[in-house]
Amino acid sequence: MQLSLIDPWESLIATREMLDDAGLRAAIATVRTRSGVDPALLWPYVERLPEIGKRPAWAVDDYGRRFAVWGARCSA
Predict the structure, then answer these.
(1) Which of these, 33, 51, 62, 74, could form a disulfide with 44 (CB 3.0-4.6 Å)?
(2) How many CB atoms are closer than 10 A to CB 61?
(3) Residue 11 and residue 59: Cα distance in Å, rounded?
(4) What is the pTM of this model?
(5) Any residues with CB less than 8 A from the CB of 49 and at least 6 apart, and which?
């Protein structure tokens, strides 16, 4: 499957589903900390992916750093 993310500045809306996903929020904070990026930056562009093993999955473009999150796991 080819994943094509749009410019994150075109869609700066974090949905309730995204904000309620503690694993997603923790993964974004962890990647930002490991990258030396300010964790207080605006919410990154996040796109919902099909579930993996009944867990929610997300594609994240955080100011050029792209990674996938499913459950509480992160894959950079």
Answers:
(1) 62
(2) 17
(3) 14
(4) 0.69
(5) 3, 57, 58, 59, 68, 70
- As a whole number of angstroms, the distance between CA 28 and CA 8 comes to 15
Residues 6 or more apart whose CB falls under 8 angstroms from that of 11 comprise 45
Amino acid at 58: W
Place of tokens 């964790």: 39
Give every CB contact of residue 7 below 8 A, 6+ residues apart in sequence: 45
Q: pLDDT tens digits, residue range 27-70?
A: 888 888 888 878 777 788 888 888 888 888 899 988 888 999 98
